[in-house]
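Workshop exercise sheet. Pairs work together: one partner reads the sequence aloud, the other fills in the structure field after running the prediction. Swap roles for the next sheet.
Pair: D.N. / O.F.
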Amino acid sequence: MNRSLPPGLTNTFLWSEELGYGWHTAPAMNYDSGYFAHYQKLDETPMGAALTEARLELVRKFTDPAFGCDIGIGGGRYVKESEGYGFDVCPDALEWLANRGSLCGEHNSIQVATCCDSLEHIPEPEKLLARVGVWLFVSMPIYKDMADVLQSKHYKPGEHLHYWTLAGFIAWCERQGFEVKEVNHAEEALGREGITSFAFKRVE
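Structure field:
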């Protein structure tokens, strides 16, 4: 996608007020082994435990977490506690999933997907959502407007590629064939600034 942009726009932030959506055109970062090890340590903290429980609580309202594929597993705690599956781009995370027998294949259809702090990292998230059959659960930063993005702690070019307002994200998911079933701020209540959680269901 970047190849179609003029040279001056290949490493900058683009924002559409109409869509409530922004995209940073910097290349996606590499997720090496240090990334997985870092999140394994965070998973073992009290906050890691609380976040995992909040995410499981949301999913359990609608379906069995064991049916799910966690996209971008962080340190793997959600996969362990849900007894479900996962997929990642970090080699160490993929090896960890394979050793557990919990690896969801890159081209498998997915009935239940969880994207906790991951959807905004994916270069072409539309391709992921096209594979999700029923339920989509997302936790990620949500912004008021472009100025809010640029001053946010979550503005991380190369790591966070996509930036949405609340209305912009719900509308984007609707265009992918999903309707919103719940929006909550459970993670923000635990101390995660600006994080919103969503449950979406595929429109039949």
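Discussion prompt: DSSP finds eight helices and nine strands in the chain. What would you look at next?
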